[in-house]
Amino acid sequence: MATSKVRLKSWFDKKISEPVIKILRRGAEPKQLAFSAALGITMGVFPICGVTVLLCGLAIASLGSLCHAPTVMLANFIATPIELSLVVAFLRLGEKITGGPHFPLTSDALKKVLTGQASRDVFLSIGNALLGWLVATPFVIVGLYIIFLPCFKILVRKFSSDSPPTAKTATKERVA
């Protein structure tokens, strides 16, 4: 049990904490970081698995210097576990909007999708999930931006390369 906690903490530090601290130390603006993190998470919960990296790449290419590419991609990575849990919510929202029938989520439906034997109903449900995501996107991105902006203001101030390291951060750097 203890070794799994140590491995999880090590993985979290390597994949999440250290990249975030590197991003913060490079001097990006809090507004840009908040927007980029909100964009990455919003794109990261797109209801079709395996497409989020492509969507983030397209967003980065389209927005250019308005977003911070490493932050978008890191937020997309962080959103991956949330993606599957929101597919049902987006599906139900899409069904409400279209007034379409309630799609039963069974193991048989998933099996048909994975084996390529999907019926028209499955494709309709995917369309409903996409519609649900599309409608929710502006609310999600604005809500996340509002939440992230004060956080990034604090974090940028704390980890900015201009400010001298505190005893706590200097100790952490020597340990790492």
From TrEMBL:
Pfam families named in the record: DUF2062
Domain of life: Eukaryota
Acetylation listed as a keyword: no
TM regions (residue ranges): 33-61, 73-93, 130-152
Domain DUF2062: 20-158
PANTHER family cross-referenced by the UniProt entry: E3 UBIQUITIN-PROTEIN LIGASE
Name of the protein in its database record: DUF2062 domain-containing protein
Organism of derivation: Cardamine amara subsp. amara
